[in-house]
Design goal:
Elements lengths: L1 H22 L3 E4 L5 H8 L5 E4 L2 E4 L2 E3 L4 E4 L3 E4 L7 E3 L5 E3 L2 E3 L10 E6 L6 E3 L2 E3 L3 E6 L5 E3 L2 E3 L13 E4 L5 E3 L2 E4 L4 E4 L5 E3 L2 E3 L5 E4 L5 E3 L2 E3 L3
Parallel strand pairs: 1-2, 2-5, 3-6, 4-7, 5-8, 6-9, 7-10, 8-11, 9-12, 10-13, 11-14, 12-15, 13-16, 14-17, 15-18, 16-19, 17-20, 18-21, 19-22, 20-23, 21-24
Length: 230
C-alpha cells in the first residue's frame, strides 16, 4: 500500500511538472502603435502566441524564439521604408493573418516582408498580405518552411530588374510553397541551390519570370499558373 501511494505521488508530481511546462505558453494581446510589438516579443517566452490588435504596429522586428504571431483583421506591421518588416532567426515560428508592408529598398540586405535566416527551421508563413516590400518572403538557408496562401505585391516603382522576388529561396530544402499569389516585383519565385522542395498551385502575374530556377534538383513544381509575365 505504501508503494502504491508513493507511486501515485510521483505520478502526480510528474504530471504537475509536465503541466507546468505546458502552461508556460501564453496568449498575449499586443495593442497597436509604438514599440508594443517589439516589447512583446522581447518579453514573451518560447511557445507563446502574440495576437496583434487591428491597427499599425512598428516593423523591423526580430523574432529569436519560437513564437506565433497572428492578428485581427486590419493588423498591419509596417517597417516605414527601412529594413525588413519581420526577420526570423529561430525555429518553429509562425506568422499568420497579418499585413506586412513598406520594407527598405536594399537588395544586398534582402529587405523584405519576412526574412528567414539559416538555422531557423520549421517556420510557417501563412495567410498574410505583403505590400510595397522589396522582397516578399526570403528563405535564406532554412529547412522545412511552409509558405502558404500569402498575397504578395512587391514594389513597382523600381526598374523591373531592381525589384525583389516574391519568394526568394536559396540553399533551402524540404519546404512547401503552396497557394501563394504574386502579382508584382521581379520574379514570382527565385530558387537556387535548393533541393527537395514542393512548389505547388501558386499564381504568378505581371512579373519577369514566374519561376526562375537555378541549380536546384529534386524539387516538384506543379499546378502553378503564369499569366502575362515577361
Amino acid at each position: 500500500m505504501m508503494y502504491r501511494l508513493h507511486a501515485l505521488t510521483l505520478l502526480s508530481a510528474g504530471l504537475f511538472l509536465a503541466g507546468g511546462a505546458l502552461t508556460r505558453a501564453a496568449d498575449i494581446n499586443v495593442p497597436a502603435g509604438g514599440a508594443h510589438l517589439a516589447e512583446a516579443i522581447a518579453a514573451a517566452q518560447s511557445g507563446d502566441r502574440l495576437f496583434l490588435a487591428s491597427g499599425t504596429h512598428a516593423g523591423q522586428v526580430v523574432i529569436n524564439k519560437a513564437l506565433t504571431l497572428e492578428g485581427e483583421d486590419g493588423a498591419t506591421v509596417d517597417a516605414g521604408g527601412t529594413g525588413t518588416v519581420i526577420a526570423i532567426f529561430a525555429s518553429n515560428v509562425s506568422v499568420r493573418g497579418l499585413t506586412l508592408r513598406n520594407s527598405g529598398p536594399k537588395g544586398e540586405a534582402f529587405d523584405s516582408g519576412v526574412y528567414i535566416e539559416k538555422g531557423a527551421d520549421n517556420v510557417t508563413i501563412e495567410g498574410n498580405r505583403m505590400e510595397n516590400n522589396l522582397f516578399g518572403v526570403v528563405l535564406h538557408g532554412s529547412k522545412n518552411a511552409t509558405v502558404r496562401a500569402n498575397i504578395i505585391a512587391n514594389r513597382t516603382d523600381l526598374r523591373l530588374n531592381d525589384r525583389g522576388n516574391g519568394i526568394h529561396i536559396w540553399n533551402n530544402s524540404g519546404s512547401l510553397i503552396e497557394g501563394n499569389t504574386v502579382t508584382s516585383g521581379r520574379d514570382g519565385i527565385y530558387i537556387e541551390i535548393s533541393h527537395g522542395n514542393f512548389i505547388r498551385t501558386n499564381w504568378f502575374q505581371g512579373l519577369r519570370f514566374a519561376v526562375h530556377y537555378m541549380y536546384a534538383n529534386n524539387n516538384e513544381v506543379s499546378g502553378n499558373t503564369s499569366i502575362r509575365n515577361h
